[in-house]
UniProtKB/TrEMBL annotation:
Stated family: Belongs to the mannose-6-phosphate isomerase type 2 family.
The reaction(s) this protein catalyses: alpha-D-mannose 1-phosphate + GTP + H(+) = GDP-alpha-D-mannose + diphosphate
Protein name: mannose-1-phosphate guanylyltransferase
Pfam families named in the record: ManC_GMP_beta-helix, MannoseP_isomer, NTP_transferase
């Protein structure tokens, strides 16, 4: 069985922890592990391999986090633009043997009862082996209005899928015993799903097949071309197949599941002290109770407050009443209008390493850059800024124009505006340097890549 892991989504309801270039599934929220890593660990106990569907930025995050887990039996499919779950799953299934049973899971769900989960998977795998399309229905614990519901019939049959209900309808679903939260997890043979997709959504099937056939195929990596991905109609697996097919079965799943879709749900999953505050070594509390406190950089002191969400990421501070955190998406819409804070943290992750913005003001920006051993930045130039590089540790191989030289600790180099340059780490330890950018514009999109090891496009 292959685990198809869907890594799409930016988790805007968990801003400012979750950003476009570091979405919630890759943030290490639980015992120094991310939801993505927990997904891989959980499913690798029953699956032979992982097939990860993501965009190019998330691909490198996934590579790094799988390396930490020492998981190397992986395949990747890169989407240049998201077209929802039906095309993503179709492309992955088309790359597999038609008789391969796949377990399709999001990368950002939390499941705490793994013993029960193993039993549920075994039942789903058996139903999938009988050529059914299996979905997992989460046993509801309260009248949730933020999820879709599955209405079950006899012998694991599905009577209907229901959209997100109002509060009264959700309560009626809870009172009944045959309604389940739609988890977004599935199990089926790759070929059975594709046959049903071709039957009920032939446009998606044909466009996905064309995209895969013209994709750039490497050993374990498939890159879909932008023009081919755009040509695929956008739709969810529920609308495209599951709500139309007669082969759908549902497996009731009481597995302590959470989609960690808001700060209120995150609060319920994090360890808390005797006063109901989430445990945080940077938090100083005076008579404060039942608060979610998140922050790793600065001390957070609270006095006589209750039922608040306080999230500090260094470049952004969120304060909300508990119960109102669904409105964070509205905050993100406002943030997008004026800043890049929706997009990236102070520390940005790149395939070659990381950079951290130490200071940014009109006219200049200062960064701390870490380049991993054996990695190098793209050959590039800038139109609006000059750069000064000062090496702190390690030895950097620096190319500026036609000249290549070694820069050692406490040595520096200067790159004029418009000059081609590249930095490589040919050593055995990380290269750490301070970069000072000076110019009228220091945005991350002022970069022209001439050559790039990671096939990234110019922003």
């Amino acid at each position: 069985m292959t685990n198809i892991i869907l890594c799409g989504g930016s988790g805007t309801r968990l801003w400012p922890i979750s950003r476009t270039l570091m979405p919630k599934q890759f943030v290490k929220l639980f015992d120094s592990k991310s939801l993505f890593q927990l997904t891989v660990e959980r499913n690798s106990k029953v699956c032979d391999s992982q097939f990860i569907v993501s965009n190019s930025e998330q691909y490198f995050l996934a590579l790094d986090q799988l390396e930490e887990l020492h998981k190397d039996n992986n395949r990747y499919l890169l989407e240049p633009v998201g077209r929802n779950t039906a095309p993503a799953i179709a492309l992955a299934c088309m790359a597999l043997d038609k008789d391969e049973i796949v377990l399709v899971t999001p990368s950002d769900h939390l499941i705490k009862d793994e013993e029960e989960y193993a039993k549920v998977l075994k039942k789903a795998q058996a139903l999938a082996g009988e050529n059914n399309l299996v979905t997992f229905g989460i046993t509801p614990s309260f009248a949730e209005t933020g999820f879709g519901y599955i209405e079950s019939g006899e012998e694991n049959s599905v009577r209907a899928f229901h959209e997100k209900p109002d509060k009264q309808t959700a309560q009626s679903y809870l009172d009944a015993s045959n309604y389940y939260w739609n988890s977004g997890m599935f199990c089926f043979k790759a070929g059975v799903f594709l046959d049903e997709l071709q039957k009920y959504s032939p446009e998606i099937y044909e466009a996905s097949l064309k995209a895969l056939n013209s994709a750039k195929d490497e050993t374990t990596l498939t890159r879909i071309k932008h023009e081919d991905m755009i040509a695929i109609p956008e739709d969810s697996i529920d609308y495209a197949v599951m709500e139309k097919s007669s082969k759908v079965k549902v497996v009731p799943s009481n597995i302590e599941w959470s989609d960690v879709g808001s700060f209120d749900s995150l609060y319920e999953e994090l360890p808390q002290d005797e006063n109901g505050n989430t445990i945080n070594e940077n938090h100083i509390s005076i008579d404060s109770k039942n608060n979610l406190i998140y922050g790793k950089q600065r001390k957070i002191a609270t006095v006589d407050i209750e039922d608040l969400i306080i999230v500090d990421t260094g470049d952004a501070l969120l304060i909300s009443k508990k119960g109102s955190s669904q409105k964070v998406k509205e905050i993100v819409k406002e943030v997008r209008k004026t800043t890049e804070l929706h997009n990236i943290h102070l520390t940005g992750h790149r395939p070659w390493g990381t950079y951290t913005i130490l200071e940014s003001t009109p006219g200049y920006k200062i960064k701390r850059i870490v380049v991993k051993p054996g990695k190098r930045l793209s050959l590039q130039k800038h139109f609006h800024r000059n750069e000064h590089w000062i090496v702190v540790s390690g030895t950097a191989t620096v190319t500026v124009g036609d000249e290549t030289k070694l820069i050692r600790p406490n040595e520096s180099t200067y790159i004029k505006m418009g000059e081609l340059h590249r930095l490589s780490n040919e050593g055995k330890i990380p290269v750490v340097l301070i970069e000072a950018q000076v110019g009228e514009y220091t945005g991350e999109d002022d970069i022209v890549r001439i050559d790039d090891d990671y096939q990234r496009e110019t922003p």
